Amino acid sequence: MHLTKEEERMLESDNPAVRKAMKLLVKLGDIYGAEEMVEVKSAQASGVSYKSIGDPGIKFLKEFVDEGAEVSVPTFANPAGMDLERWKEMNISEDFAEKQREIVEAMKKMGITIASSCTPYLWSNLPRRNEHIAWAESSAVSFANSVIGARTNREGGPSALSAAITGRTPKHGLHLEENREPTHVVQVDASLDDISDFGALGSWVGQRVEDGKPYFIGIGSAGTDELKSLGAAMAASGAVALYFVEDITTDPKEVSNLEKLSFGEKEKKEEYDKLTASEEPELVVFGCPHCSINEIEDIANRLEGQKVKKDLWVFTSKAVKAWADRMGYTDIIERAGGKVLSDTCNVVCPIEDMKYEKMGTNSGKAANYLPGFCEQDVLFANTTELIDKVIE
To answer: Which domains does the chain have, with CATH numbers?
Structure first.
């Protein structure tokens, strides 16, 4: 790789953490055939949940801290394994909570903002089009590339942290213009009336294109919540990090001679059926990725004046929850018997160690991850059906 003078100085830095971070990035660059580094304007740190990284991860982070690690670009933490304030209400064990706090403290010492969210673009960290970033969470990577038009690969935990420290990442993959063209055309003929429908579409497409870059025709209209649901599901069932939607996202330059897929009502129903293993959830969850204020408002409106007979959790960022608190949405949901939780989500918290075995979700991402990561039988359904399952 060709390194600038500044990058060469980091490679030989007196600071052990900077030196280690740059060496890791150079090795990755060699593996991927990158010719040079690119400066990044922000980073997103993954591997925040103790469930995900365990004791080896804590050791890795503490070693970086002891070596003098400090981030050089704005860096936001992904969700932790618990609500950092209300963890007892989630039945999180004292041991897990203590380990989680160690991770958070290590990240704070490095200057990482403990946002604990997978949707930083909803409240603070909004990159510009064509801006190079180093993000790690799969749904955020998809949204940043596809909807915002920023440029990032799906970084691993160590590489994202190294990019945060050095302000650099190897220039390969989706950082290069020639790699940002579609590989498939997807004709959508099914109705898309709920974010779960977008999740079903994304889940179906991700399995078929794997790490491809689909171009959707026929979606018609889609807002922020629908697009984050679509991208998150494709990143979970496949490894899609960039997609295009006709007349909504940036249009690609060339769409001829591409493999074609068709998604109709038949495929939609089959995907719902495939993702469902139980019709009677013990816990219904919303917010994978984290709920926007609009999603929370919708849930609150549906629950106003109601009482839930089963557990219901709504996951969001601390910032969005503050808005929900101020608007009275949190109070409505919690008076109905639900919980609005921050800092974590249903995938990275230790659901499998709690009393739950059957969960309901409107998230295509969660429906793909919960059976394996959390040992759950899933009901994948739209928002209305899920609310109907839990109210008395």
So the answer is: 5-177 (3.30.499), 181-273 (no CATH), 276-390 (3.30.499.10)
